[in-house]
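Thread: 2-phosphoglycolic acid complex, take 2
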Amino acid sequence: MLIAGNWKMYKGPGETAEFCLALRDAELGAAAVVVCPPYVSLAVAVQLLAQTEIAVAAQNVHWEGEGAYTGEISAPMLRELGVYGTIVGHSERRQYFGETDECVAKRAEAALAAGLEVIACVGETEEQRERGETEDVLRRQVSVLPDDDGLVVAYEPVWAIGTGKTATPEIAQDAHTFVKSLLDRPVLYGGSVKPDNAGELLAQQDVDGALVGGASLDVDSFAAICRAAPTP
Ligand code: PGA
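Output below.
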């Protein structure tokens, strides 16, 4: 079980330090735990969590090692900081920054080649689900991802992200089974995971963990979600 906290554009270095110090003392249970702060807060998180089991990952990565790509960060740069992995293809990247399946795949491949673990996000919008296109969308998004031991998929239905609308455990289970039929890798669920719904989502057979947004910003609620993971 992997529980990852995606902080999005929250917490600069000061708040990150406070959070990491509190997280070190929190009871997290048996799950593997990862936090994904913004780029500017990665160094302090790596430093403060260095002697713990808690890993630090980025929220995105560029596909070139270096070059004229203003505003981007490369996988070797993240490695140099001591970062263990990265998210790619979050629906907010796809929606607001025009990322395509192909560019998400390039980011994933470059990160894996540099030795980073990758959490690759996929998921349908509400309109796509209503039109019965969920499986087509997942097939298109998953088919470009590399089949690699360092890759984990996160199924995040876009209609459940930050909306308080969680997929039912059955919807999550069905989508995860479908994703695994395309690519045999662990699949995290993401979309309004909270302490009070984490237990039943994580109990589904094909749910291998969670990617948590809003509820990962508070140490107590993040720790409660980590503890909700069933012990293997
Ligand atoms: P949420 O975000 O938990 O706030 O819905 C999940 C995500 O976007 O990864």
